[in-house]
Write a structure and sequence with these properties.
single chain, about 160 residues, alpha+beta, Arc Repressor Mutant, subunit A, Dna Ligase, domain 1, 2 domains, 6 strands, about 15% strand, binds zinc ion
């Protein structure tokens, strides 16, 4: 896999666009937070520390451009605000996201496992699947733990049955 900065520079060049210093700042913020999914506002706040002249509108435009080029993925987790993450070269189909309904944490699940669905859709509809965006809603391991009696939520009968 090539240097992500050079990869984005090439993808931009294919569209007669340049990796300007401002665009590079936005990109580096995303690369430095590869383990999370940042909102445009969060990208802006971080980018502004590095390049004070950078405006929020530029951040939005840059994220839009990156998303169009496929080097950044836009995630709508149902919060009314989009989140962004770098999509590395050769990453294939988009990974799945697990959204915790209690704490709002967004976890990732890297296995695709949708091959059968994709093939069935293609076979039955003639539609060619190139990607997907799948959100699974539930409770993360932390939020499943009993609350030690300080909450009024009913305990599940199943809590004792799991391993660990
Ligand atoms: Zn897939
Ligand atoms: Zn949680
Ligand atoms: Zn993700």
């Amino acid at each position: 896999m090539s240097d992500p900065i050079e990869y984005v520079r090439e993808r931009l060049a294919q569209q007669d666009q340049r990796l300007t210093p401002q665009r590079e700042t936005v990109l580096r913020v995303l690369l430095d937070h590869a383990d999370t999914h940042l909102t445009a506002e969060e990208v802006y706040l971080e980018a502004r520390n590095r390049a004070p002249e950078l405006g929020l509108a530029t951040v939005y435009r840059t994220l839009d451009l990156f998303a169009r080029l496929g080097v950044v993925r836009r995630l709508d987790a149902g919060e009314g605000v989009a989140r962004y993450e770098f999509h590395p070269e050769g990453a294939g189909h988009y990974h799945h996201h697990l959204i915790c309904l209690e704490c709002g944490q967004i976890l990732e699940f890297e296995q695709d496992l949708l091959d059968r669905v994709e093939r069935a859709v293609e076979r039955e509809t003639g539609f060619r699947v190139v990607d997907h965006s799948l959100l699974l809603f539930g409770l993360c391991p932390n939020c499943q733990k009993p609350s030690d009696g300080d909450g009024d939520r009913p305990r599940s009968d199943r809590e004792a049955s799991g391993p660990a």
